[in-house]
Automatic annotation (TrEMBL):
The keyword Transmembrane applies. Keywords: Cell membrane, Membrane, Transmembrane, Transmembrane helix, Transport. The keyword Protease does not apply. The chain crosses the membrane at residues 12-32, 72-94, 101-124, 136-159, 180-205, 238-259. Its main location: membrane. Belongs to the binding-protein-dependent transport system permease family. This is Carbohydrate ABC transporter membrane protein 2 (CUT1 family). It is found in: Cell membrane. One of its GO terms (biological process) is transmembrane transport. It is a multi-pass membrane protein. One of its GO terms (cellular component) is plasma membrane.
Length: 273
């Protein structure tokens, strides 16, 4: 009786898991389904894309292609800038006896709790004086305010697990602090670097608040803001709107699939410490 009961419970758990997964993935399926339909209302869309049409993707690429490129450039720039700042900062907080390190870490945690609208409003006044409104460098700096603190926390948790003897051995062999950091610490921190880079990219790619506050022209407009304004223009042509949403989701999906093993290893290393 016990094996039969165990098998029944196993099937029940599997069915429940499949149902939960189906409910969670249904919005993604509906987005893809609507994007492959001829132009029209989403309410009238059939459950299966029997009459396929790629007109929505053609319209999305024509109207939103520039915004997609802008988002890619801003996201990549934010990742590079955040890691360049966060990696040495995390190394110093992890390996050096920095006076007030606890206060610095507490300040980093507090910065993560500040509402984004407060930061955006403060940056708008400063950007207006510095001429950084409607500029890609301005968006990179703004989005890095999210990426840098998170990257420091992720990187420091991993760097604490690196034995000090490894760095000392490099110093004995004649390497200076900078060379030991670049040649030894950075390669050993690959998993944490990929994890921090991935989450920074996702933060920046999905940003809407900074894009709405710090851009006022069409020359520099991330895809999130483009979709927002697209809905008001093409409210009766949901295939184009959903096609834009699908295209905007692809970079994040590809990066998550490619980097998942590095992310799992990086998070696990930090969690063990």
């Amino acid at each position: 009786m016990r094996p039969a009961v165990t098998q029944t419970r196993g099937w029940g758990s599997t069915v429940i898991g499949v149902l939960v997964l189906a409910v969670m993935l249904f919005p993604l399926y509906w987005m893809l389904n609507v994007s492959l339909q001829p132009s029209g209302s989403a309410v009238e869309t059939p459950w299966l894309p029997l009459d396929l049409s790629f007109d929505g993707y053609a319209t999305a690429l024509r109207d939103q292609g520039r915004n997609l490129v802008t988002s890619l450039v801003v996201s990549a720039g934010s990742v590079v800038f955040s890691l360049l700042v966060a990696t040495p900062a995390a190394y110093a907080l992890a390996q050096f006896r920095v006076r007030g390190a606890g206060v610095v870490l507490f300040g980093i945690l507090i910065s993560q709790m500040i509402p984004g609208i407060v930061v955006a409003n403060a940056l708008y006044r400063v950007y207006s004086d510095l001429g950084l409104l409607n500029s890609i460098p301005g968006l990179i700096l703004a989005d890095s305010t999210h990426g840098i603190p998170f990257a420091i926390l992720i990187m420091r948790a991993y760097l604490l697990s690196i034995p000090a003897e490894v760095i000392e051995a490099a110093r004995v062999d004649g390497a200076g602090q900078i060379r030991a950091f670049v040649a030894i610490v950075v390669p050993m921190s690959r998993n944490a670097l990929v994890t921090a880079a991935l989450f920074t990219f996702l933060f920046t790619w999905s940003d809407f608040l900074f894009a709405l506050t710090l851009t006022t022209t069409e020359e520099v407009r991330p895809v999130t803001l483009g979709i927002y304004q697209y809905i008001g223009t093409y409210v009766n042509d949901w295939s184009s709107v959903m096609a834009t949403a699908v295209l905007a989701s692809l970079p994040a999906v590809v990066l998550l699939v490619v980097a998942q093993r590095f992310v799992a290893a990086g998070v696990a290393s930090g969690a063990v410490k």
